[in-house]
């Protein structure tokens, strides 16, 4: 069985480790590094994973999953370089960090797979996009796909599309939270108590997401099915179009992509 170490067990690292445990991996095959002793103790008590040092992770694990904040990457790679065993697979969950950064900092030939996950990983519903670096083989990608499929869906994309993916699914949950928040406010405007407005909107979001996910229909077909002639929905749709909501989403996501490109440039040599 592959031994896996998560380097930096924060929100995403813990979500992945607990998802792997729920997906049937043994706690004995999972380990982590963590700067804060109290947090490390609590993760071990709660799940049974071993807290290790970076050198311990490099010695024992076959796959090292990097889940520190992008700004913490340099000291981590400096610590990892002298202890890394040949053939160990590096999986980066760090937003904006190219595989070439790892390839430059780690020993020649180190296989690296870059992943853009998203926060629904904490409920086992992540959307992760994976890209192999220049030393990653199709087998390495398969290992990563299998790992991540225990916490959601996985798509393989060329690394050149990772900035677009970051803007679409990496930030995507935030756009839905924003829409839900605005729709709850509309409920308040119409005199509905906040708790009830939240229930009405959140359940509508869950129901709509389930229909999109389980059915084979295109979103346009689903929307047209609830848009009757001279009815209430078409009145709302007219206002959404008048206020440029579709154009706003296109511009917003394009702008998020541009910011991702800009952040990635900070890691070019
Ligand atoms: N959260 C998201 O929505 C999301 C989505 C996609 C991708 N990501 C990526 O996932 C990564 C983790 O994000 P997160 O939200 O889980 O961040 P986080 O909660 O801050 O977790 C990172 C953890 O790593 C620790 N750490 C930093 N340097 C370390 C080192 N050298 N050795 C061991 N532990 C170290 C941090 O400690 P300190 O707090 O003391 O620094 C923190 O506990 C980021 O690179 C992010 O870009 C996150």
UniProtKB/TrEMBL annotation:
**What Gene Ontology molecular-function terms does this entry list?**
pyrroline-5-carboxylate reductase activity
E.C. designation(s): 1.5.1.2
Name the UniProt key words of this record, in alphabetical order.
Answer: Amino-acid biosynthesis, Cytoplasm, NADP, Oxidoreductase, Proline biosynthesis
Subcellular location(s): the record lists: Cytoplasm
Q: What pathway or pathways are given for this protein in its record? A: Amino-acid biosynthesis; L-proline biosynthesis; L-proline from L-glutamate 5-semialdehyde: step 1/1
InterPro entries cross-referenced by the UniProt entry: 6-PGluconate_DH-like_C_sf, NAD(P)-bd_dom_sf, P5C_Rdtase_cat_N, P5CR-like_CS, P5CR_dimer, Pyrroline-COOH_reductase
Please tell me where this protein is predominantly located. Answer: cytoplasm
**Pfam families from the entry?**
F420_oxidored, P5CR_dimer
Occurrences of domain Pyrroline-5-carboxylate reductase dimerisation (ranges): 159-263
Which is a Gene Ontology cellular component entry for this protein? cytoplasm
Quickly give the catalysed reaction: L-proline + NADP(+) = (S)-1-pyrroline-5-carboxylate + NADPH + 2 H(+); L-proline + NAD(+) = (S)-1-pyrroline-5-carboxylate + NADH + 2 H(+)
The record's listing under NCBIfam families reads:
proC
Function field:
Catalyzes the reduction of 1-pyrroline-5-carboxylate (PCA) to L-proline.
The record, for HAMAP family, names: P5C_reductase (MF_01925)
Family indicated by similarity: Belongs to the pyrroline-5-carboxylate reductase family.
Can you say what this protein is called? Answer: Pyrroline-5-carboxylate reductase
